[in-house]
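look at this stuff:

>
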Amino acid sequence: MSKLFESVTVGRHTLQNRLAMAPMTRSRAQADGTPGDMTAEYYSQRASVGLIVTEGTQPSEDGQGYLFTPGIYTDAHVAGWKKVTDAVHAKGARIFFQLMHAGRMSHPDNTPHHRQGVAPSAIAPGAGMFTLKGMQDIPVPRALATDEVRQTIADFRFAAKRAIEAGADGVELHGANAYLIQQFFAPSANTRTDAYGGSIENRARFAIELAQAVAEEVGADRMAIRLSPGATLWGIDEGEEGPDLYRYLIAELDKLGLAYVHIMHQGDDALLADIRKLWRGALVLNRPGRPREQVGSDVASGLAEVESYGQMALANPDFVERLKANAPMNEADRGSYFGGGAQGYIDYPALAA
């Protein structure tokens, strides 16, 4: 495990260790998407890791899916996030903003403009979503016109610019977990007949063009992408061609020289091995539910440069110190994951307490 605590270069940055905090939605932003008063404390508590990836942050009004998620496209958003980045940098960590467009995983009651969600195609996910009125079925989204796809790319590009203005060390595109980018990958969500649908190359086009645009804006070595090959959340089915789509996508992204690719591993070890061969840059690997005794194994074997952790980082502000001391971990309080105040957010005890 000792290799976990060594520094590593990722893109243009050197991380103080090979541990990352995975992005986790906490739904504690203000109604306008500005990070809440406790957000800086929350992230700075966990800044003993080398890299923090923020919760999914919408690049536009259309991009919001859930209640009280943060944005990064207004002056107020930038000012709020600047407090966060300053606090994290004071502890020595690097912080990448995860840019997340929810696509069809949205409800009009949760967005500033209260408009119908947008997606590759007008296909509902067949799921519910929590709103201030309680759980409601997610309505059928509106299919993006071709020019609107390009405008969405421009929205991401602008949000990436604003993230850097807010002090972010980089941005991570959220291409996982059934949100907009993965919706383009999946035939179950994408039945388009233009350049963004049909073939593997077309279904990967949105992600590739998006990565190219953001790389042009902030520098390829300050951007990354998160992927969850094979994930089947909320009606997503990538079909038999799914693994080949990711092989094609990774090979194309490799040409751009991004800071890292962040893989949420779903169990296809053969595909993961191929991704490692195709991807020449830094690989950040997240294995949901990884047992404590396997922490550090992917870095030790050379499969990944960095390992990312969700619940353990959420529940243990001194995650790195506990690993070094082989100390017990706090258990995460699932009931306080989304929304609320300090409880289950900034009140998890550290070892020193």
Notes: Residues 2-336 form a domain with the TIM Barrel fold (CATH 3.20.20.70). The two ends are 25 Å apart (CA to CA). The chain has one domain: 2-336. Residues 189 and 242 are 13 Å apart (CA to CA).
